[in-house]
Amino acid sequence: xxxxxxxxxxxxxxxxxxxxxxxxxxxxxxxxxxxxxxxxxxxxxxxxxxxxxxxxxxxxxxxxxxxxxxxxxxxxxxxxxxxxxxxxxxxxxxxxxxxxxxxxxxxxxxxxxxxxxxxxxxxxxxxxxxxxxxxxxxxxxxxxxxxxxxxxxxxxxxxxxxxxxxxxxxxxxxxxxxxxxxxxxxxxxxxxxxxxxxxxxxxxxxxxxxxxxxxxxxxxxxxxxxxxxxxxxxxxxxxxxxxxxxxxxxxxxxxxxxxxxxxxxxxxxxxxxxxxxxxxxxxxxxxxxxxxxxxxxxxxxxxxxxxxxxxxxxxxxxxxxxxxxxxxxxxxxxxxxxxxxxxxxxxxxxxxxxxxxxxxxxxxxxxxxxxxxxxxxxxxxxxxxxxxxxxxxxxxxxxxxxxxxxxxxxxxxxxxxxxxxxxxxxxxxxxxxxxxxxxxxxxxxxxxxxxxxxxxxxxxxxxxxxxxxxxxxxxxxxxxxxxxxxxxxxxxxxxxxxxxxxxxxxxxxxxxxxxxxxxxxxxxxxxxxxxxxxxxxxxxxxxxxxxxxxxxxxxxxxxxxxxxxxxxxxxxxxxxxxxxxxxxxxxxxxxxxxxxxxxxxxxxxxx
Length: 607
What we know:
By secondary structure, the chain is of the alpha/beta class. Helices cover 51% and strands 11% of the residues. The chain has 2 domains: 2-230, no CATH class; 357-605, Rossmann fold (3-Layer(aba) Sandwich). α1 packs antiparallel against α8 (197-223) and α9 crosses α10. It is elongated. Residues 316-353 have low confidence and may be disordered.
């Protein structure tokens, strides 16, 4: 009985460690790593060859790379290091397309190829024979077959799982963890706010790989062998099932899933009587796992233990009036005719320069999609401290031009200069760090972050918004976090959304989500703000209030470029206004001037 309980403890600890690593990658950061099991296998092999004697031992009946005979815990540490290092070529392999389906398929194919290579080519890692007679940790000091040793091994596995859980909880609950969750929800928007997606994903692959490698090292020391066929890609599906069923984004759910799926199914199958042809019960087990995944994704995608809502708002800021943008919301609007400019927006160096200075310009800008020139030779110059409008019929290329200015899309032709610097090839996150920030045509909030988390996530230079800062803990970044939360609370108060601070942003109305996106962009401390239809879905009266606030921000030194279809907004607030049609600049001037030009009237202003 003691040996059975010990086996349960060890496998439970190993499965929990592995599921925690996958939960951090997939549930928190949104990296779909279908090659996860390869990291566990690599860690197991590393621990084996670090603890085995040289190849001439035991009659030299097996070959392997290494054979150093190192004492415990060095093999386990080596397993974690190799698991993490193995992630680097994986990240380089997928490169900039390390997202969504591309990542999932690329990592899955790599895992399958790696498994076939190891299994079928004997000179490489001894082929299908694998490793045997792997020494148990401290086997020369304590009898590995004794009940006390076996039970102690199980306790160590559980303790390691608890330590991994606490470490990942520390990372996830930091500003860095918030950035990972923002990337998971909407990576394009996170990129536009200055988040280095490639660095974030690579770090999560490395961290998850190290944790997977550690779990493999613990397992191989207990079973004393390494069989490459036992680490097939299908095992990754079992771990994914555990994370999905337990609860995406919740590390407690990952531990629960580890207990229910890989451990629970394996043990439950032992008590099913043998029926039908050989292999029927294992096959039915896979069918059951597949059905569970489908059922949970369909009926309860959040899992048994959903991701915990994180509340940042304090009780010190009054709720203020609640603005409900949209039809029928006029009675809910405050009586104040304009929203006061938020003092929380910090100025970048050079923002005090004289109005009229050219801060952003494009020369012969073009973007070609499959032979179609969506933008064709656009040349514009944006003056500092002005609210510049950009109008044109649908398909004129306005949003595409805005995306190229922000770096979300790279131009096919032409140059972009920002504050005199050529930024044509600069990625979006580096442009955002220089103060060039954008919003999007469709509401692009981080749906599973609360409203106040959305705002705080945009603040640049946060101490806890790095892996190192997250590891150092709340004592390192807590004071600055409180200041950022206070800034966000005052921003919410001025926009009338304080009552919604701790709601998920994805649960708000369309107009409210627009306001969240606008506030978040202001929290990013922009020098130049590119707004793509910010008034869409917003009550007309509130839209005018926002327009006045934008003018006030321009008076403080901010530069704003706004794409908008509502001409009354352009009439009242924008000077100059640029008209685009068929991917080209048609005219530029005040709205009064533009209405007097026949080509503009024919292209856009008729009606």
